Amino acid sequence: MMDPPKALLERSFLQAVAQDDHADHSRAVDEYVRLVELYQREELLLVAVSDHAQRFPGMHHPWRQIGLRRTGVFAPVDFLWVGFQHRRAARRAADEHGLEFEMALTLTMAERHRIVRLVTLDPRFDAFELTILPQRDESTDDVTPAIAES
Amino acid sequence: MSATSEAPTFVAPSDRRVSLRSVVPTDLLHPLRLTLMLSYLVVYLLWLRYKGLPIDRISVAISVGIFLVCAFVGRSWRTWGILLLDCLFYCLMWLSYEKTRGAADQGFEVFGLFKVGPYPLQVESMRNIDRFLFFGHDPNVVLQDHFWERSIRWYDYIASTTYMTHFVFPIIVMAVLWVLSHRQWVRFMKRFATLLGVACLLFVLLPTAPPWMVGDPDRPYQLFHELHRNAGRGFRDMGFKGFTNDYKVQLSNGNAVAAMPSLHASFALIVPLFFMQWIRQWWVKAVLFLFPITMLTSLVYLGEHWVIDGLVGWSITFGAFWFWNRMEQRSRDVRSRTARIALGRPTDRDLAVDDPGDDARDGASQPEVAPA
To answer: Which residues pair with B110 in a beta bridge?
Structure first.
């Protein structure tokens, strides 16, 4: 409400940005650079689930935990800290709806923080009422549907 | 596209997307927090009506503390840890302010190493500035001579109520920001703490006799007739009252000559100024700015401050915003540049260096046509 809108960087996107040899690295970096420009203009905040972001170099440093020592690719990214109540909710969502736990955790954090923009390369998130970035190019989309149909 | 190794079993309807609320369990503590906050608000308003407005620091802090407990029920341990750290800094800020303000006219020792002050009491200088600004007139005297009456008039209610908001209004804003957005709370506190810090510096460097003191016949430097000093009379006549608890005695660091700048005026400006960023309509902005103007007018009418006290207070407020706006933008610029450098993408500086306009401005000669 008071802050600029937030874009949640999902782990598949983080991975693609961080790994030079990732198949979607170039596309992910283009999108990330665009988002960083919006961040610089204070039109957008970039956030990531702490459990996912801390897997990358420099993101688990003690000073980084309190928002200091912002180095590397993800310097502009803030953490969405995961508490036990988030894990519990994510576990319930995963069990009740047949979701992968990490995916359920992302959805739980998005819901609890009222985030509607998700930056991801995982097509499974297309099934949810979220604004998915980067925008899908349907003419070249040869990926299997996000959700398996029974 | 990347794909996970675990095949999803979740099946979504093919014709519509799924809302997150239908998947993520409801936070049952959220309605509890809302209920607690609303209940507390009702109790607080009743307390305000029958016991009075708490105006000492500790009572106000306790009021805010109870509200925050209601608002943070069920939050994570980390959130509580951050809240406690925030409270610690908050208390340190106020304690430093109170101690510095209290010692402003007597000087104080810095960690036992050296003493700062005391500096000469300003008796005539602020009055002279006001007279210069108002073509030889004393605004305090003019307002009271023209408007003050034994019976309480409508503007006395406005002046008195406006004056009393100083003790709670910014604190209420802090509490609300604490709950709504920690990021905005931090932004507000940076500006607020800067304001307090600069004010304390001026309290020490320029201890200033306020108008009511300068008009006091018991003082050796009476410059004009005695002013009426009863800032709370309109407020009390409406059925409200302010109260302070006994801890005020222990914390008694009030200092009548800590008057330049006027924090009443500064606090009245910092809140509307902070929220300007979210307001689009010009007329709403204009209405909001009426509040600090009303506050300064009230302070002058009530004999509490010189006009220049308020103007300097406002200047410090604007200065604090200017400073922190620049610092925050700089922080975003640095982080953005760090990310781009790590990605091997051009930064703003690289793009600026490559701009041919720079060469033209530098006066370097360039061939009109590149050689074959």
So the answer is: B114
Instruction: Locate all alpha helices (DSSP H) within A41-144, ordered by sequence.
Output: 50-53, 62-65, 84-97, 101-112
- Higher pLDDT pick, A18 / B246: A18
Burial class of residue A92, CB neighbours in 10 A (0-12, 13-18, 19+): middle
State the Cα angle at A113 between A112 and A118, rounded to 5°. 105
Q: Which two tokens stand for residue B16?
A: 């519509």
A35 contacts A119 by C-beta, under 8 angstroms: yes
Q: Do B6 and A129 touch (CB under 8 A)?
A: no
Can you give the pLDDT at residue B44? 86
Asked if A92's CB is within 8 angstroms of B23's CB, the reply is: no
Instruction: Say what the pLDDT of residue B83 is.
Output: 87
Residue B259 and residue B62: Cα distance in Å, rounded? 27
- Among A27, A128, A136, the residue to mutate for chain B (most B Cβ within 10 A): A128
Q: What are phi and psi of B115, to 5 degrees?
A: -110, 140
Write out pLDDT tens, residues A50-101.
999 988 877 877 777 777 778 889 999 999 999 999 999 999 999 999 999 9
